[in-house]
């Protein structure tokens, strides 16, 4: 069906060239043909590969490298120093490579910790609308090749996501967590910081992951644990409810005098 739809509804061809209203910074270089839309901005020393599209009002900040065949949709921002591989799709409104949430408490209150790492996105990655992928605090934030990220996802600083993962809407991944290859994170799952989700694991919707997940495991609930165990516990609670009601009927109640 996918092939049939592609044949029946081919993708629109970009309007190649640079729109007169686009802002092109000093030292920008590109290879082959590109399309830069109205109001788009390319910062200093940006590098664009052949066939890149930067849509209307998108911004690519200084020192960003964009591989061949990438598409950055309207109002998306790729922040300074980010590396995009080939054929990366950044959906409208996404923010890639911005500063992570890092503060230290002092006698003067919370003060920001400089975020000096990079954001490195592999080939054939898709980043959904209004998703944020933060740059690393000291090391890099990495998203591996072939990974697909849905809308409204938060990937924090120093997170490392493997290849061919699927991360669905409203997932939040806290800082320095490692998500290995072929992992599936279902909608609204939340992952705490500094943990590892093993290769091929599945995390069910709205799960709260607060510890490491073994490779190949399927987990659900909060705290996230073996999915079959959660189902058994839920079924047991459903059976207990009528028993509790029966016990309550057996206990005499003190009537007011």
Structure description:
This protein is of the alpha/beta class and 257 residues long. It has 2 helices and 33 strands. It has helices at residues 2-8, 227-250, and strands spanning 17-18, 23-24, 29-30, 35-36, 41-42, 47-48, 53-54, 59-60, 65-66, 71-72, 77-78, 83-84, 89-90, 95-98, 103-106, 109-112, 119-121, 126-127, 132-134, 141-143, 148-149, 154-155, 160-161, 166-167, 172-173, 178-179, 184-185, 190-191, 196-197, 202-203, 208-209, 218-220, 225-226. The protein is elongated, with a radius of gyration of 24 Å.
Structural class: alpha/beta
Terminal Cα span: 75 Å
Specify the helix fraction band.
10-25%
Using the 3D structure, state the CATH architecture of the domain at 2-164. Answer: 3 Solenoid
What topology does this entry show?
Elements: H1 2-8, E1 17-18, E2 23-24, E3 29-30, E4 35-36, E5 41-42, E6 47-48, E7 53-54, E8 59-60, E9 65-66, E10 71-72, E11 77-78, E12 83-84, E13 89-90, E14 95-98, E15 103-106, E16 109-112, E17 119-121, E18 126-127, E19 132-134, E20 141-143, E21 148-149, E22 154-155, E23 160-161, E24 166-167, E25 172-173, E26 178-179, E27 184-185, E28 190-191, E29 196-197, E30 202-203, E31 208-209, E32 218-220, E33 225-226, H2 227-250
Parallel strand pairs: 1-4, 2-5, 3-6, 4-7, 5-8, 6-9, 7-10, 8-11, 9-12, 10-13, 11-14, 12-17, 13-18, 14-19, 17-20, 18-21, 19-22, 20-23, 21-24, 22-25, 23-26, 24-27, 25-28, 26-29, 27-30, 28-31, 30-32
Antiparallel strand pairs: 15-16, 32-33
């Amino acid at each position: 069906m996918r092939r049939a739809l592609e044949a029946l509804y081919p993708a629109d061809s970009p309007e190649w060239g640079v729109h007169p209203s686009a802002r092109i910074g000093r030292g920008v270089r590109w290879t082959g043909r590109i399309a830069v839309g109205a109001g788009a901005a390319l910062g200093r020393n940006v590098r664009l590969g052949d066939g890149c599209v930067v849509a209307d009002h998108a911004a690519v900040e200084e020192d960003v490298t964009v591989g061949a065949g990438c598409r950055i949709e309207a109002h998306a921002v790729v922040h300074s120093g980010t590396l995009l591989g080939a054929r990366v799709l950044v959906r409208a409104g996404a923010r890639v490579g911005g500063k992570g949430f890092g503060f230290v408490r002092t006698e003067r209150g919370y003060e920001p910790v400089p975020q000096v790492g990079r954001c490195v996105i592999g080939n054939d990655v898709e980043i959904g609308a209004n998703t944020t992928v933060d740059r690393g605090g000291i090391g890099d934030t990495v998203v591996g090749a072939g990974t697909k990220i849905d809308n409204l996802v938060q990937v924090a600083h120093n997170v490392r996501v493997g290849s061919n993962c699927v991360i669905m809407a409203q997932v939040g991944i806290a800082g320095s967590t490692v998500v290995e290859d072929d992992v599936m994170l279902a909608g609204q799952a939340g992952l705490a910081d500094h943990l590892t989700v093993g290769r091929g694991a599945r995390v069910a919707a709205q799960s709260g992951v607060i510890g490491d997940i073994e490779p190949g495991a399927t987990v659900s609930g909060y705290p996230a644990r073996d999915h079959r165990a959660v189902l058994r516990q839920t079924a047991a609670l459903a059976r207990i409810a009528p028993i509790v009601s029966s016990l309550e009927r057996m206990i005499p109640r003190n009537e007011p005098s």
